[in-house]
Amino acid sequence: MKRTTIKTLLVGFTLFFSFELFGQTEVQWADSILEEFQSEEFENYQSKIVQGDSLLVIYKKHSLSCKKIETLIRKSHFQSVSGESAAALNSVNEALKAFKNEECKNDELLPEIHLAYARIYFNMNSPSQAKDYIEKGISTWKNTYHKKSVLVELLNNKGNLCQDLDSQVYYLKLAYKLAIDEDDYHRQQRVITDLGYSYAYEGKFGQAKLYFQQALTLAQKRKAYGSISGIFNNLAGVSEEEGEISRYLDSAYYYAKQKGSIDDMQTAKQNAALFHYQNKSYKKGYNNLWESMLLKDSLFNRDKIYAFAEMEQKFQSELKEQRITFLNKENNNKTNQRNGLIIGIFGLLAFAIIVVIQRNKVNKERKRSDELLLNILPSDVAEELKSTGSAEAKQYNHVTVLFTDFVNFTRISDQLGPQELVKEIHRNFTAYDKIIDKNGLEKIKTIGDAYMAVCGLPKEDPNHAAKVVAAALDIKEWMRENSGAFQVRIGVNSGPVVAGIVGVKKYAYDIWGDTVNLAARMEQNSEPGKINVSQNTYKLLHDKYTFTHRGKLSAKGKGEVEMYFVDPIHSEENLS
Fold first, then answer.
1. Domains parsed from the chain with CATH numbers
2. What's the DSSP call for residue 416?
3. Mean pLDDT over residues 526-531, rounded?
4. Could you tell me where the beta strands, DSSP code E, fall in 91-174?
5. Bridge-partner residues for 494, per DSSP?
6. Going by fewer Cβ within 10 Å, which terminus of the chain is more open, N or C?
7. Dihedral sign from CA coordinates of 180, 186, 190, 196
């Protein structure tokens, strides 16, 4: 914190004296960063919005309306992609008002303003309004205009909004030809990528692949690693040969790492997880999914870094505005010493504000960290870990373990798309979580389509077996009414287990022992819509529930084991 604040104050003083020491005017400074500001290839759009505010202060002060309008147009785009739709519309409305008031005589800005509106409505999922502004932009375009990139984007967006493939291809190819004439590799790549999407959505994967490969060549010329990573993901999506798909996914991750984009790295790992899972390479699929989860944790840390960077940029922007106000009010003959003193006061005030903000932010992050810890560990274990830095493994002699999985999961997953599959699993497991909490069980983990929970730890519970069976019956009933594509199979066993934390980097609470293994065998030997329990659990509950004796059945690694189905009806006093 101290290092960041000192750096911020030094930057503020540097901005204050740099113009006088090096003879650079405010306008020269603003113009020097305007071209970079107009680029779209940034992840941290919030910092660009703050930068736009600084430019607007300068251009408004010097009545440079054309540059003010250009800044507002680009700022509206960064606001739109950040989800700030209302703010984006305010920015482009301000730009249009300035243009209509003839503050700027540059007619070329009008099609660009229409394009800005189209982008915003497209991001707001309002395609009809986006299409109207695209038509306005094209109709106000003149061949004498120099900024051909605006027409390229208008045609590109028009193609993307067309319903039929032929119309999409027609306008996208017009945009591509114009981008070639302008020698604009960036927009050539974007248009060619969109052509690939158009063919892919129609199921014409061969043609889509050709366009994606062409886009890849353009992205490689630009050394645009983020784009390269995305294109490799697209190529994996339209390819059919497994070895090729695997290579494409590895390349997508490699270039995302080259760029340093954790978002893109996570996307590549998730795609790899789905690919391996669909090809029954479950271990590779699980490993890739686990790595994507670790990257998600990194995203949280990266967001904190961005927040600090954004805070620093806002501080610099405030210093800039204060300096401009000060220069307007004070006589130019005032000494640099007095100027430095006043800026120093502003700096100290800002320092105090940042300290307060940072303290509140640290408290907020600590609270979130505690919530995340409680989400993956039992509360008693989490408290032990926080207070001592470790948590010892313990033996619990009286617990009941529950396992569930989905019947014919592999066959059904082959019939569902990846997104639909994940959505269906999430829907079911979310319901299980609620049932587990309601009945006082502790969720341990999920592995693919398997769900594992336990009762009787870390706090002992004399009703552990009854509570687990009650939860199993609730799950069975929920699946009967809401199952969708899946049927559930449930297994239960009671006995001693050892429980503790696995790993030191990403904590995971787990249980081990023969009781766990036999519970898994109970589930494997169950039937669709049935709850299969061991003799251990039956002995604890035979006077509270009714059972159907199945006799001795063979269980892998256990020989012949007595098994019982739980009958579906039980009384309210079962938990007493």
1. 392-575 (3.30.70.1230)
2. S
3. 93
4. none
5. 400
6. C
7. positive
